[in-house]
Amino acid sequence: MKNPKVAIYYDWLNQWGGAERVLLDLLEIYPKADIYTLTYNPQKTSWLPKGHQIFSLNLKNKLLSTPFYAYKLEQIDFSSYDLVISTTSTVGHCLLTPPQCLYICYFHNINRYLYQHPPALLKPILNQYQKIDKIFATRPDHLFCNSQNVASRIQQHYHRDATVLYPGIDTQKFIPNPKPPQKYFLIVSRLVAHKKIDLVINTFKRLPYRLKIVGTGRDEAYLKCLANNYHNIEFYKSIDDSQLINLYQNCQGLIYPQEEDFGLTALEVQSCGRGVIAFNRGGAKESVISGKTGIFFDRQSPESLSDAIEKYLSKPPLSEDCRRQAIKFDRHNFMLNFTKQVDSIWSKRQTITS
């Protein structure tokens, strides 16, 4: 695929996390791509490379704007592009593209609040909206996603197959050190309800071990209140990558209490030679090897998590095993696989049209 004109859609350019790392990899593959988004906050996206045209719909208030997302996105004219790539967990599958344009949607998840955690009061309305959302899901020419976990959701709700392309991490940056671990466990996460940080805090309130929590989010004040007066629990708000790597390298292990769509932090800590204690559902089952690079717990309860921590400490993973597992998910593998898939689809498409 030589010199295509490319547009990349991404839901929210106003934060930093695993999905944003994937966006950076796509921008490295397509360095001249234009970017489209629902909202763009330059103050919160210093990580974004310079030189890209950014087109934002400036839908500032998510709650009030929700009914208009799809309508607004449908107004975008993609007729001048050869390739449109949407990387999304909400509405990136609703774009309208002309027949000559190849439209690929890479799902980090399908809409969590529509299918997994719908607000109880809105369920009747959301059930109706699901019918529209399933029509949107027919629009992309091809679906990619980040895990078998998400592929199964796409099949269940959209009745379409999705090609799994695991996102990657920078294994040259996230590296082990030879020192033995220090006496603390680690969480690296947005501080929101579905991440289950409260479960871990309540568990460590009854354990003699230290816990360091890295992240920000709307539940930050609540979680700090929950941990108040427990001096074995610390919060870290704003840290850079070197500080994060240092915390990974020196921890006893990462606590992963949520059902994650895929999740890159479990790979980052393994790349630094440390293991994972994870809830036995979701994407962690695709990146952590039970009994070798981590351990799973079956119930989201303090008792189940405590038992897992004790088992983990009785036989910690070997640093070299963790590192070996993480290298399989190097970001260059993702970029190579993504490029191969797109080029193959494009080539077949050109053969058919000619």
Description:
With 354 residues, the protein is of the alpha/beta class. The chain folds into 2 domains: 6-168 and 330-353, 3-Layer(aba) Sandwich (Rossmann fold), CATH 3.40.50.2000; 185-327, Rossmann fold. It is 37% helix and 17% strand. The chain is built from 14 helices and 13 strands. The protein has helices at 18-29, 62-65, 69-74, 112-115, 123-136, 148-158, 197-204, 220-226, 241-250, 265-271, 284-287, 302-314, 319-327, 331-353; strands spanning 6-13, 34-40, 54-56, 83-88, 102-107, 142-145, 163-164, 185-188, 211-214, 233-236, 253-256, 275-279, 294-297. The strands form 2 sheets. The chain has a 7-stranded parallel β-sheet with strand order 3-2-1-4-5-6-7. Strand 11, helix 10 and strand 12 (275-279) form a beta-alpha-beta unit. Helix 7 (197-204) packs across helix 12 (302-314) and helix 10 (265-271) crosses helix 13. The longest helix is centred in the C-terminal third of the chain and has 23 residues, at 331-353. The radius of gyration is 21 Å and the shape is globular. The two termini are 15 Å apart.
